[in-house]
Design a protein that fits this description.
238 residues; alpha+beta; seven-stranded mixed sheet; five-stranded antiparallel sheet; globular; binds biotinyl-5-AMP
């Protein structure tokens, strides 16, 4: 694993993209102590102060374009496992790309890919994890490992553990059921009442599973199941 380190750059995803276009090998990792223009999905701002872990990994998987979202689930699993193993904090997953504790959002994944025809040519897996920030250095509705565990954690140990976990699951990328099963098992809203704000309106019901391409199944009534492809999810009850 090659790690390229920065103190302060706009976004590790942008830097990784530039390195990938100049031929940087798979598993090149770009990490920065601070991001000045960290991004979430749809260009949302990602607060990236010192104390958090902000990094991106370059990959060139042999995947059809329609299966790229599998990497989002793989990265979520790897990050969750690393958090539990390295810090003992019980993190959960929330559809589609969040790491959470009951008290708030702990991290997020941003997958950006380039395809040629139906084939993926490169993928940038961006991971943001709130590690050592105190409550006042976090956005509202966010939390950090420090806030939960009461102690600081080494960013390098977490980085190594996340990448190691990613590598081990990446070897069986063709076994998508295994990746999705692990994700669902650790999903905070498994079988819970949720509401998803989608571009086509609000869908409310019990979240009952994820489909092979990453969409969420919601039971909206007796024998009525809707599939949600994108949106913002809120948990309504236990
Ligand atoms: C995400 O987007 O959750 C994906 C975040 C990915 C960030 C990584 S850091 C390394 C790499 N380089 C980048 O530039 N990005 C990636 P989304 O689901 O769209 O969530 C964005 C929303 O989360 C924002 O609109 C805020 O409400 C909230 N947010 C912003 N900063 C946060 C933080 N540090 N912790 C928790 N929530 C945050």
């Amino acid at each position: 694993m090659i790690v390229v380190r920065y103190q302060r750059i706009p976004s590790t995803n942008d830097k990784a993209k530039a390195l990938a276009s100049h031929g940087a090998p798979d598993w090149t990792v770009v990490v920065s102590e601070v991001q000045t223009r960290g991004r979430g999905r749809k260009g949302r701002r990602w607060e990236s102060h010192k104390g958090g872990l902000w990094f991106s990994v370059i990959l060139r998987p042999k995947l059809p374009a329609g299966k790229v979202s599998l990497l989002q689930f793989l990265a979520s699993n790897a990050t969750r496992r690393a958090v539990v193993e390295e810090t003992g904090v019980r993190a959960w997953l929330k559809w589609p790309n969040d790491l959470v504790l009951e008290s708030g959002k702990l991290g997020g994944i941003l997958v950006e890919s380039k395809s040629v025809g139906n084939k993926v040519s490169s993928v940038i897996l961006g991971i943001g994890l709130n590690v050592n920030q105190t409550k006042r250095h976090l956005p509202t509705a966010a939390t950090s490992i420090y806030v939960s565990s009461g102690r600081e954690h080494r960013l390098d140990d977490l980085l190594k553990s996340i990448v190691d976990n990613m590598r081990s699951q990446y070897q069986s990328l063709s076994d998508s059921a295994n990746i999705l099963d692990e994700w669902w098992l650790n999903c905070i809203h498994r079988s819970r009442l949720v509401q998803v704000e989608t571009p086509r309106g609000i869908v409310k019901g019990t979240s009952i599973g994820i489909n092979p391409e990453g969409s969420l199944r919601i039971e909206t009534g007796k024998l009525m199941v809707e599939t949600v492809v994108e949106g913002k999810l809120r948990i309504l009850s236990d």
